[in-house]
Amino acid sequence: MLMLMWVGHTFSLCSLPCGVMETGKSDEFRTVLRTICSNFVPKIMAIVTLTDALLQRLRHGDRRIIRDRVLVGFCVRMNIKRRTFMVATTCAGKQVRAVIGFYPLMTTAEARVIATEIIKQCRAGTYSKQAPRPTTTYPSIREMLPQYIKDKGLKAPTQRRYDSLMRTHFPDWYDKPVNELSSPLFAEHCHKFVQTQTVSVTEMGRAFIGAITRYVNAIFGMNITSPFIRLAAAGLMNEKVQPRKRRLEESRLPEWYQAVNRLPDQQRDALLLIAMTGLRRSEALLMRRNQVNFGSGIISIPETKTGKAHSLPITPVLEEILNRRCSHLQPEDLLFSSVSGEHLADRAQRHGAPAFMLHDLRKLLATIGERLQIAESILRRILNHTSKRSDTLYRHYVSIELSDISAPLEQIQRILLKLMTMKN
Protein backbone atom coordinates (compact mmCIF):
# COMPACT_ATOMS: atom_id res chain seq x y z
CA MET A 1 0.00 0.00 0.00
CA LEU A 2 1.19 3.57 -0.72
CA MET A 3 1.18 6.39 1.74
CA LEU A 4 1.56 10.13 1.04
CA MET A 5 4.13 11.77 3.30
CA TRP A 6 5.03 15.47 3.75
CA VAL A 7 8.74 16.07 4.08
CA GLY A 8 9.75 19.71 4.46
CA HIS A 9 8.30 21.44 1.39
CA THR A 10 7.85 18.35 -0.82
CA PHE A 11 5.56 15.38 -1.06
CA SER A 12 6.99 11.85 -1.25
CA LEU A 13 5.38 8.49 -1.96
CA CYS A 14 6.32 5.61 0.34
CA SER A 15 5.43 1.90 0.11
CA LEU A 16 4.05 0.25 3.18
CA PRO A 17 5.39 -3.27 3.49
CA CYS A 18 2.00 -4.87 3.84
CA GLY A 19 1.91 -6.50 0.40
CA VAL A 20 -1.77 -5.73 0.04
CA MET A 21 -1.64 -4.37 -3.52
CA GLU A 22 -0.34 -6.20 -6.54
CA THR A 23 2.74 -4.79 -8.25
CA GLY A 24 0.92 -3.62 -11.39
CA LYS A 25 -1.85 -1.93 -9.45
CA SER A 26 0.69 -0.40 -7.08
CA ASP A 27 2.58 1.23 -9.99
CA GLU A 28 -0.68 2.50 -11.49
CA PHE A 29 -1.79 3.94 -8.16
CA ARG A 30 1.62 5.57 -7.67
CA THR A 31 1.31 7.33 -11.08
CA VAL A 32 -2.21 8.58 -10.33
CA LEU A 33 -1.19 9.83 -6.92
CA ARG A 34 1.81 11.69 -8.34
CA THR A 35 -0.50 13.43 -10.83
CA ILE A 36 -2.85 14.50 -8.05
CA CYS A 37 -0.04 15.76 -5.83
CA SER A 38 1.59 17.80 -8.61
CA ASN A 39 -1.30 20.26 -8.43
CA PHE A 40 -0.48 21.04 -4.82
CA VAL A 41 3.31 20.94 -4.73
CA PRO A 42 5.04 24.34 -5.10
CA LYS A 43 7.36 24.90 -8.02
CA ILE A 44 10.84 23.56 -7.43
CA MET A 45 13.14 26.32 -6.31
CA ALA A 46 16.34 26.44 -8.36
CA ILE A 47 19.51 26.81 -6.30
CA VAL A 48 22.24 28.84 -7.99
CA THR A 49 24.87 31.43 -7.15
CA LEU A 50 22.97 34.70 -7.53
CA THR A 51 24.84 37.43 -9.44
CA ASP A 52 23.89 40.52 -11.41
CA ALA A 53 25.07 38.85 -14.62
CA LEU A 54 22.77 35.88 -13.99
CA LEU A 55 19.73 38.08 -13.32
CA GLN A 56 20.36 39.96 -16.56
CA ARG A 57 20.29 36.70 -18.52
CA LEU A 58 17.23 35.16 -16.90
CA ARG A 59 13.91 35.88 -18.63
CA HIS A 60 11.47 34.11 -16.30
CA GLY A 61 8.40 36.10 -15.24
CA ASP A 62 6.24 33.46 -13.59
CA ARG A 63 6.99 34.49 -9.97
CA ARG A 64 9.31 31.52 -9.49
CA ILE A 65 11.78 31.81 -6.64
CA ILE A 66 15.49 31.21 -7.20
CA ARG A 67 17.58 30.50 -4.10
CA ASP A 68 21.19 31.49 -3.52
CA ARG A 69 23.74 28.70 -3.08
CA VAL A 70 26.14 30.93 -1.12
CA LEU A 71 23.74 32.35 1.50
CA VAL A 72 20.99 29.94 2.52
CA GLY A 73 17.70 31.80 2.81
CA PHE A 74 18.63 34.54 0.34
CA CYS A 75 16.56 34.34 -2.87
CA VAL A 76 14.99 36.33 -5.70
CA ARG A 77 11.44 36.20 -7.05
CA MET A 78 11.23 36.48 -10.84
CA ASN A 79 8.24 38.73 -11.54
CA ILE A 80 7.22 39.94 -15.00
CA LYS A 81 8.42 43.53 -14.58
CA ARG A 82 11.00 43.27 -11.81
CA ARG A 83 13.25 41.00 -9.76
CA THR A 84 12.51 41.05 -6.04
CA PHE A 85 15.29 40.24 -3.56
CA MET A 86 13.95 38.56 -0.45
CA VAL A 87 14.77 36.33 2.51
CA ALA A 88 12.86 33.04 2.82
CA THR A 89 13.76 31.18 6.00
CA THR A 90 12.45 30.35 9.48
CA CYS A 91 12.76 32.01 12.87
CA ALA A 92 11.84 30.14 16.05
CA GLY A 93 9.91 27.59 14.02
CA LYS A 94 7.93 30.17 12.02
CA GLN A 95 8.29 31.03 8.36
CA VAL A 96 9.87 34.38 7.49
CA ARG A 97 9.36 36.13 4.16
CA ALA A 98 11.08 39.53 4.00
CA VAL A 99 11.36 41.72 0.89
CA ILE A 100 14.76 43.43 0.66
CA GLY A 101 14.65 45.43 -2.57
CA PHE A 102 14.43 45.27 -6.34
CA TYR A 103 16.95 44.58 -9.09
CA PRO A 104 18.53 46.49 -10.90
CA LEU A 105 18.09 49.42 -8.53
CA MET A 106 19.77 47.30 -5.89
CA THR A 107 22.69 45.06 -6.83
CA THR A 108 22.91 41.43 -5.79
CA ALA A 109 25.89 42.23 -3.56
CA GLU A 110 23.98 45.00 -1.75
CA ALA A 111 20.95 42.73 -1.28
CA ARG A 112 23.13 39.91 0.07
CA VAL A 113 24.57 42.20 2.77
CA ILE A 114 21.08 43.13 3.98
CA ALA A 115 19.93 39.51 3.75
CA THR A 116 22.89 38.41 5.88
CA GLU A 117 21.81 40.69 8.74
CA ILE A 118 18.21 39.46 8.60
CA ILE A 119 19.27 35.79 8.50
CA LYS A 120 21.57 36.35 11.50
CA GLN A 121 18.60 37.66 13.48
CA CYS A 122 16.51 34.67 12.35
CA ARG A 123 19.18 32.19 13.44
CA ALA A 124 19.36 33.90 16.83
CA GLY A 125 15.56 33.86 17.08
CA THR A 126 15.40 37.64 17.52
CA TYR A 127 13.99 38.67 14.14
CA SER A 128 10.65 40.44 14.11
CA LYS A 129 8.80 42.18 11.29
CA GLN A 130 8.06 45.00 13.70
CA ALA A 131 11.74 45.36 14.54
CA PRO A 132 13.68 47.93 12.50
CA ARG A 133 15.28 46.31 9.46
CA PRO A 134 17.89 47.69 7.11
CA THR A 135 15.94 50.08 4.91
CA THR A 136 16.18 50.36 1.16
CA THR A 137 18.36 53.23 -0.02
CA TYR A 138 16.52 54.92 -2.86
CA PRO A 139 18.51 56.50 -5.70
CA SER A 140 18.02 60.05 -6.86
CA ILE A 141 16.39 61.04 -10.14
CA ARG A 142 19.85 61.95 -11.46
CA GLU A 143 21.05 58.41 -10.70
CA MET A 144 17.90 56.79 -12.12
CA LEU A 145 17.68 58.83 -15.32
CA PRO A 146 20.20 56.81 -17.44
CA GLN A 147 18.51 53.52 -16.48
CA TYR A 148 15.07 55.02 -17.20
CA ILE A 149 16.22 56.19 -20.64
CA LYS A 150 17.65 52.74 -21.36
CA ASP A 151 14.57 50.84 -20.17
CA LYS A 152 12.22 53.07 -22.18
CA GLY A 153 14.39 52.93 -25.30
CA LEU A 154 14.70 56.72 -25.49
CA LYS A 155 17.46 58.59 -27.28
CA ALA A 156 20.34 60.74 -26.02
CA PRO A 157 18.67 64.08 -26.97
CA THR A 158 15.69 63.14 -24.78
CA GLN A 159 18.01 62.44 -21.85
CA ARG A 160 19.69 65.82 -22.33
CA ARG A 161 16.30 67.53 -22.44
CA TYR A 162 15.15 65.87 -19.21
CA ASP A 163 18.49 66.64 -17.55
CA SER A 164 18.14 70.31 -18.51
CA LEU A 165 14.55 70.37 -17.21
CA MET A 166 15.57 69.01 -13.80
CA ARG A 167 18.65 71.25 -13.47
CA THR A 168 16.71 74.35 -14.44
CA HIS A 169 13.31 73.89 -12.80
CA PHE A 170 13.71 71.16 -10.15
CA PRO A 171 17.33 71.54 -8.97
CA ASP A 172 16.53 70.89 -5.28
CA TRP A 173 14.92 67.56 -6.15
CA TYR A 174 17.35 66.25 -8.74
CA ASP A 175 19.70 64.70 -6.18
CA LYS A 176 17.17 63.77 -3.50
CA PRO A 177 15.96 60.17 -3.11
CA VAL A 178 13.03 59.44 -5.42
CA ASN A 179 10.70 58.75 -2.49
CA GLU A 180 10.89 62.50 -1.76
CA LEU A 181 8.61 63.01 -4.78
CA SER A 182 5.72 62.16 -2.46
CA SER A 183 6.53 64.96 -0.01
CA PRO A 184 4.25 68.01 0.45
CA LEU A 185 7.21 70.29 -0.30
CA PHE A 186 7.57 68.79 -3.78
CA ALA A 187 3.84 69.21 -4.41
CA GLU A 188 4.12 72.89 -3.41
CA HIS A 189 7.11 73.32 -5.72
CA CYS A 190 5.14 71.83 -8.64
CA HIS A 191 2.28 74.27 -7.94
CA LYS A 192 4.68 77.23 -8.14
CA PHE A 193 6.21 75.75 -11.29
CA VAL A 194 2.80 75.70 -12.99
CA GLN A 195 2.09 79.30 -11.94
CA THR A 196 5.39 80.75 -13.18
CA GLN A 197 6.31 78.82 -16.34
CA THR A 198 5.01 78.88 -19.91
CA VAL A 199 2.48 76.35 -21.10
CA SER A 200 5.02 74.39 -23.16
CA VAL A 201 7.53 74.12 -20.30
CA THR A 202 4.73 73.15 -17.90
CA GLU A 203 3.60 70.39 -20.23
CA MET A 204 7.11 68.98 -20.52
CA GLY A 205 7.53 69.04 -16.73
CA ARG A 206 4.15 67.43 -16.22
CA ALA A 207 4.92 64.65 -18.70
CA PHE A 208 8.34 63.85 -17.26
CA ILE A 209 7.35 63.92 -13.58
CA GLY A 210 4.32 61.76 -14.38
CA ALA A 211 6.46 59.25 -16.28
CA ILE A 212 9.20 59.06 -13.66
CA THR A 213 6.71 58.57 -10.79
CA ARG A 214 5.07 55.69 -12.67
CA TYR A 215 8.51 54.18 -13.24
CA VAL A 216 9.43 54.55 -9.54
CA ASN A 217 6.12 52.97 -8.50
CA ALA A 218 6.73 49.97 -10.76
CA ILE A 219 10.33 49.43 -9.69
CA PHE A 220 10.01 49.99 -5.93
CA GLY A 221 6.40 48.96 -5.39
CA MET A 222 5.56 52.48 -4.23
CA ASN A 223 2.35 54.43 -4.71
CA ILE A 224 3.44 57.99 -5.50
CA THR A 225 0.88 60.20 -7.22
CA SER A 226 2.24 62.95 -9.46
CA PRO A 227 1.37 66.38 -7.99
CA PHE A 228 0.34 67.46 -11.47
CA ILE A 229 -2.55 64.96 -11.40
CA ARG A 230 -3.92 66.59 -8.26
CA LEU A 231 -3.37 70.07 -9.72
CA ALA A 232 -5.27 69.09 -12.88
CA ALA A 233 -8.12 67.62 -10.82
CA ALA A 234 -8.37 70.93 -8.95
CA GLY A 235 -8.40 72.90 -12.23
CA LEU A 236 -5.05 74.54 -11.49
CA MET A 237 -3.19 73.40 -14.61
CA ASN A 238 -2.69 75.61 -17.65
CA GLU A 239 -4.41 74.69 -20.87
CA LYS A 240 -2.45 72.30 -23.06
CA VAL A 241 -0.26 73.67 -25.82
CA GLN A 242 -2.15 74.02 -29.07
CA PRO A 243 -0.49 72.86 -32.31
CA ARG A 244 1.37 75.68 -34.02
CA LYS A 245 -0.31 77.03 -37.13
CA ARG A 246 1.41 76.61 -40.44
CA ARG A 247 3.20 79.83 -41.38
CA LEU A 248 4.01 78.99 -45.00
CA GLU A 249 0.97 79.68 -47.16
CA GLU A 250 0.47 77.90 -50.46
CA SER A 251 0.13 81.20 -52.28
CA ARG A 252 3.74 82.03 -51.34
CA LEU A 253 5.24 78.74 -52.49
CA PRO A 254 6.62 80.24 -55.76
CA GLU A 255 8.43 82.86 -53.69
CA TRP A 256 9.74 80.14 -51.38
CA TYR A 257 10.88 77.96 -54.28
CA GLN A 258 12.79 80.79 -55.96
CA ALA A 259 14.61 81.61 -52.71
CA VAL A 260 15.48 77.94 -52.11
CA ASN A 261 17.04 77.70 -55.56
CA ARG A 262 19.41 80.55 -54.62
CA LEU A 263 20.86 78.49 -51.75
CA PRO A 264 24.00 76.33 -51.99
CA ASP A 265 23.37 72.85 -53.37
CA GLN A 266 23.18 70.92 -50.07
CA GLN A 267 20.82 73.43 -48.40
CA ARG A 268 18.61 73.56 -51.50
CA ASP A 269 18.35 69.78 -51.83
CA ALA A 270 17.73 69.32 -48.10
CA LEU A 271 14.71 71.63 -48.20
CA LEU A 272 13.36 70.06 -51.39
CA LEU A 273 13.76 66.55 -49.96
CA ILE A 274 11.85 67.49 -46.79
CA ALA A 275 9.12 69.19 -48.83
CA MET A 276 8.70 66.23 -51.20
CA THR A 277 8.73 63.47 -48.56
CA GLY A 278 7.36 65.03 -45.36
CA LEU A 279 10.35 63.63 -43.47
CA ARG A 280 11.13 65.08 -40.08
CA ARG A 281 14.21 67.30 -39.86
CA SER A 282 16.49 64.74 -38.21
CA GLU A 283 15.31 61.94 -40.49
CA ALA A 284 16.28 63.91 -43.60
CA LEU A 285 19.44 65.69 -42.47
CA LEU A 286 21.04 62.61 -40.88
CA MET A 287 20.45 60.44 -43.95
CA ARG A 288 23.50 58.50 -45.16
CA ARG A 289 24.40 57.19 -48.60
CA ASN A 290 23.77 53.55 -47.59
CA GLN A 291 20.14 54.39 -46.76
CA VAL A 292 19.44 55.13 -50.42
CA ASN A 293 19.06 52.05 -52.62
CA PHE A 294 18.58 53.00 -56.25
CA GLY A 295 18.45 49.33 -57.26
CA SER A 296 15.34 48.56 -55.19
CA GLY A 297 14.05 52.13 -55.37
CA ILE A 298 13.78 52.54 -51.59
CA ILE A 299 14.88 55.12 -49.03
CA SER A 300 15.32 53.55 -45.57
CA ILE A 301 15.18 55.52 -42.31
CA PRO A 302 16.06 53.13 -39.47
CA GLU A 303 15.85 55.64 -36.61
CA THR A 304 12.74 57.79 -36.32
CA LYS A 305 10.82 59.76 -33.71
CA THR A 306 8.25 56.98 -33.38
CA GLY A 307 10.93 54.32 -32.84
CA LYS A 308 9.73 52.41 -35.92
CA ALA A 309 11.88 52.06 -39.03
CA HIS A 310 10.49 54.01 -41.99
CA SER A 311 10.85 53.62 -45.75
CA LEU A 312 9.74 55.55 -48.81
CA PRO A 313 9.78 54.82 -52.55
CA ILE A 314 12.24 56.74 -54.73
CA THR A 315 9.92 58.61 -57.07
CA PRO A 316 11.18 60.43 -60.19
CA VAL A 317 11.25 63.73 -58.26
CA LEU A 318 13.25 62.19 -55.42
CA GLU A 319 15.57 60.35 -57.80
CA GLU A 320 16.69 63.66 -59.31
CA ILE A 321 17.47 65.12 -55.86
CA LEU A 322 19.19 61.99 -54.54
CA ASN A 323 21.31 61.46 -57.65
CA ARG A 324 22.83 64.89 -57.11
CA ARG A 325 23.54 64.19 -53.46
CA CYS A 326 24.72 60.57 -53.64
CA SER A 327 27.30 60.84 -56.40
CA HIS A 328 30.89 60.28 -55.21
CA LEU A 329 29.81 59.52 -51.61
CA GLN A 330 31.00 56.57 -49.53
CA PRO A 331 28.33 54.32 -47.93
CA GLU A 332 28.67 55.93 -44.48
CA ASP A 333 28.82 59.53 -45.75
CA LEU A 334 26.02 61.97 -44.84
CA LEU A 335 24.06 63.41 -47.73
CA PHE A 336 23.84 66.80 -46.02
CA SER A 337 27.06 67.00 -44.03
CA SER A 338 27.32 70.80 -44.17
CA VAL A 339 23.66 71.57 -43.36
CA SER A 340 22.57 72.82 -39.93
CA GLY A 341 18.95 72.06 -39.16
CA GLU A 342 18.81 74.88 -36.64
CA HIS A 343 19.64 77.55 -39.25
CA LEU A 344 18.31 76.05 -42.49
CA ALA A 345 14.99 77.94 -42.50
CA ASP A 346 16.66 81.21 -41.44
CA ARG A 347 19.17 80.93 -44.24
CA ALA A 348 16.41 80.46 -46.82
CA GLN A 349 14.60 83.51 -45.42
CA ARG A 350 17.77 85.59 -45.81
CA HIS A 351 17.65 84.66 -49.51
CA GLY A 352 14.08 85.93 -49.84
CA ALA A 353 11.87 83.06 -48.66
CA PRO A 354 8.74 83.94 -46.65
CA ALA A 355 8.78 83.13 -42.94
CA PHE A 356 8.42 79.38 -42.37
CA MET A 357 9.44 76.48 -40.14
CA LEU A 358 10.76 73.17 -41.45
CA HIS A 359 7.74 71.42 -39.97
CA ASP A 360 5.53 73.58 -42.23
CA LEU A 361 6.75 71.51 -45.19
CA ARG A 362 5.53 68.30 -43.53
CA LYS A 363 2.18 69.90 -42.76
CA LEU A 364 1.90 71.18 -46.31
CA LEU A 365 2.38 67.69 -47.77
CA ALA A 366 -0.31 66.32 -45.42
CA THR A 367 -2.70 69.13 -46.35
CA ILE A 368 -2.37 68.48 -50.07
CA GLY A 369 -2.82 64.74 -49.48
CA GLU A 370 -6.03 65.42 -47.58
CA ARG A 371 -7.28 67.71 -50.33
CA LEU A 372 -6.63 64.96 -52.88
CA GLN A 373 -8.77 62.67 -50.68
CA ILE A 374 -5.92 60.24 -50.14
CA ALA A 375 -6.86 57.72 -47.45
CA GLU A 376 -5.81 58.56 -43.92
CA SER A 377 -3.96 55.25 -43.59
CA ILE A 378 -1.88 56.08 -46.68
CA LEU A 379 -0.99 59.53 -45.32
CA ARG A 380 -0.05 58.02 -41.96
CA ARG A 381 2.25 55.60 -43.75
CA ILE A 382 3.88 58.33 -45.88
CA LEU A 383 4.47 60.56 -42.83
CA ASN A 384 5.27 57.66 -40.46
CA HIS A 385 2.68 59.10 -38.10
CA THR A 386 1.59 56.88 -35.20
CA SER A 387 -2.12 56.53 -34.61
CA LYS A 388 -3.68 56.91 -31.16
CA ARG A 389 -3.57 53.92 -28.83
CA SER A 390 -7.35 53.75 -28.91
CA ASP A 391 -7.33 53.46 -32.71
CA THR A 392 -7.36 49.67 -32.86
CA LEU A 393 -8.16 49.51 -36.58
CA TYR A 394 -5.05 51.32 -37.80
CA ARG A 395 -2.72 50.03 -35.06
CA HIS A 396 -3.54 46.34 -35.34
CA TYR A 397 -5.41 45.56 -38.57
CA VAL A 398 -4.58 47.94 -41.42
CA SER A 399 -1.18 47.20 -42.97
CA ILE A 400 0.07 49.50 -45.72
CA GLU A 401 2.89 48.26 -47.96
CA LEU A 402 5.50 50.39 -49.72
CA SER A 403 3.86 49.75 -53.08
CA ASP A 404 0.59 51.21 -51.75
CA ILE A 405 2.06 54.67 -51.21
CA SER A 406 4.13 55.10 -54.38
CA ALA A 407 1.34 56.45 -56.63
CA PRO A 408 -0.26 58.71 -53.96
CA LEU A 409 3.15 60.19 -53.07
CA GLU A 410 3.89 60.94 -56.73
CA GLN A 411 0.48 62.60 -57.03
CA ILE A 412 1.19 64.87 -54.04
CA GLN A 413 4.65 65.74 -55.40
CA ARG A 414 3.21 66.75 -58.78
CA ILE A 415 0.79 69.15 -57.08
CA LEU A 416 3.59 70.58 -54.91
CA LEU A 417 5.81 71.21 -57.92
CA LYS A 418 2.91 72.82 -59.77
CA LEU A 419 2.28 75.18 -56.83
CA MET A 420 5.98 76.00 -56.50
CA THR A 421 6.50 76.80 -60.18
CA MET A 422 3.23 78.64 -60.67
CA LYS A 423 3.70 82.18 -62.01
CA ASN A 424 2.02 85.02 -60.10
How would you sum up this structure, described in words?
- Helix 16 packs across helix 18 (402-420).
- With 424 residues, the chain is an alpha+beta fold.
- It has four domains: 2-38; 46-124, Double Stranded RNA Binding Domain (2-Layer Sandwich), CATH 3.30.160.390; 141-233; 250-420, Orthogonal Bundle (hpI Integrase, Chain A), CATH 1.10.443.10.
- The chain has 18 helices and ten strands.
Give the tally of structural domains. Answer: 4
Q: CATH homologous superfamily of the largest domain, by name?
A: Intergrase catalytic core
Proportion of residues in β-strands: 5-15%
Could you tell me how far the N terminus lies from the C terminus, measured between alpha carbons in angstroms?
104 Å
Which ranges are low-confidence, i.e. pLDDT below 50, for 5 or more consecutive residues? 1-21, 37-44
Q: Using the CA coordinates, give the radius of gyration.
A: 32 Å
| Overall residue-averaged pLDDT value | 84
Number-wise, the strands total 10
| CATH domain topology of the largest domain | hpI Integrase, Chain A
Please tell me what the overall shape is: elongated
* Number of alpha- plus pi-helical segments: 18
- Largest beta sheet: strand ordering: 3-4-5-6-7
CATH architecture designation of the largest domain: Orthogonal Bundle
Helices and strands, in order, run as EEHEHEEEEHHHHHHHHHHEEEHHHHHH
Helical content class: 40-55%
Q: Please outline the major beta sheet.
A: 5 strands, mixed
| CATH secondary-structure class of the largest domain | Mainly Alpha
Structural class: alpha+beta
